[in-house]
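thread: overnight batch results

M.L. [08:02]
morning all. the overnight job finished for the chain we discussed friday. pasting input first so we're all looking at the same thing
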Amino acid sequence: MIAQIRGTVLGLDSDHAVLEAAGVGYAVYAPRSVLASLRVGQEAVLYTVYQFREDDVKLFGFASRAERNLFQTLRLVKGIGGKTALDLLSTLPAERICHAVATGNLALLCTAPGVGKKTAERIVFELRDKVKGEAGVAAPTAAGAGALGDDAVAGMMYFGYPPAVAAAAVAAARRSLGPAADTESLIREALKHV
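M.L. [08:03]
and the structure it wrote out:
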């Protein structure tokens, strides 16, 4: 197994980077956040998972051990392979995934490509006890967030609004309604701000 790779970034693509280590160029598939942090010509260190299947061999890379561990944990769910797990980590930070699983926030998980309601339910059911502390962080506390804010943002994203627009609208709704507002009220008010 290849657990870590250190090398020079030779190239970047939409879903992978090519890292040269010891004269060999490795295609390393990574979440978009990781790819965005890499620069061609600079050295990078990625924590990796080597996937060997009958019809496919891939090397997945992550910025931290916690992110790699969450990727491996997601793959334990029936029907979740490397691509879907990577899509989840490309759509949501590890902390938000763990929080969504712990709180049963299906709408937030459904924002990832390839994750429908049944898959999200299966992720929550199979991993709820396994992700506690997985990403090494507590629930997110961004402005306008908290459990209700996250649910409201996820609801807005479920209606098709991009994450940034949804978060801004929910933050505006939170300012209008105050901290005691419930998720339904937040969504109703947020829709007035888009």
